Sequence to fold (442 residues):
Amino acid sequence: MRNMYNTINSKTIYALSSAPGKSGIAVIRVSGPEAKKIGNLFNIDLPDPKKVQIAKLVHPHNGDLIDKALITFFKSPNSFTGENMVELLIHGGKAIKDLIFSILAAEDNFSYAEPGEFTKRAFLNGKLDLVEVEGLADLINAETEFQRKQAFDQMEGKLSNLYTKWKGQLVKNLSYLEATIDFVEEEISPEIAGSQIKDIKVVLSELDAHLNDSNKGERLRDGFHIIIAGSPNTGKSSLLNHLSNRDIAIVSDEAGTTRDSLDAYLDINGFPVIITDTAGIRKAKTEVENIGIKKSQTKMNEADLVLWLMDSSINKNDGIPHNIKDKSIEVWTKSDISIHENKDIIISTKKDQGITQLIDIIGKFVEKGCRTEGSFITRSRHRDALEKTKNHLSMITKNDLLDVEVIVEELRSAVNSLARITGHVDVEDLLDIIFKDFCIGK
Fold:
């Protein structure tokens, strides 16, 4: 599907490519077959490709000076979109932008870009594949250092190169077996198929290791989920407020005041962390509280880590539920009025005691759960396609008696599943989903 896009009959699109609102500088991007028309329209000489030039923009109808701008011209195919593209760096006042947009809107075959349309054209013109497009989206949305690193590697083709390598090997095996069927008249010997299956097993082994990644890439992209749980009035809301440095949860001496889950988004050592305060676990006194407790139990089951809070000022505490014990940390609270001794993790949000130690411990769990070295799966659609690829290849490798025609069919399906990840087959149904996450101007 890629490299088949014809820009001759497409519209020329334009949009604000910098952040909206008043600013010192704004960037207006224009891309398409008539992008060079910007020169005549505003009475300026476009610079040579990839050069920058200062020019005064002139109103095409009344000759008024609009603004002084920096102009850059990118000649097809050497641009982000693969089309002719012009960028105007203007002063970022609303009146300037509105006037330029009104002039462009009046031109035939010019239209304001849809969200992600520049990037979509880059994909359709073969400048980026779908995995790289998703990496670009993640880079724009990255809020922590390790999110940025993972997104940049993906945008630069680290994941794509791996999938393309596997696809290339499987295509080679597929081509050999198809040629054998076409040109060998006698029955194909097991040795001929076996030589290809050996290569397929190597790909399958690498793919299986890639899938067995504990979801680290997705966790780094979406955030490491930590639940603050425990009995009512153990200081869960106080801890959430303390960690987030703002009052987002109700803090009260009355037990059962948290009825719903509350989230705080944190950056811990460069990793994204979502910490959720939940309703205290006890026998509910009202139906509303019961709903909150059930939600808490669901959240705990789904969490990457549970901070189970115990009140050190009282004798009796409920222990960590058995089903979440393997992913839980026991945290004793209210150390300033504690009646217990020798607790590994004991804190006081009131006196700011033990919080640094707790954050260090959380950081180690988060790093273990998110730290990525190499290429990791970042989206469920990639994982689904890889699982399908694995299933097709497993059908081949686990049965030595398969006919070559069956092997070829399974190989073809495996190749198509891999190609669907990067967009090298028809993925029209995916495009709107992927590109809708981009802002206008990108």
Observations:
- The chain has a mean pLDDT of 88.
- The domain at 134-213+377-422 is CATH 1.20.120.430 (Four Helix Bundle (Hemerythrin (Met), subunit A)).
- The longest strand covers residues 65-74.
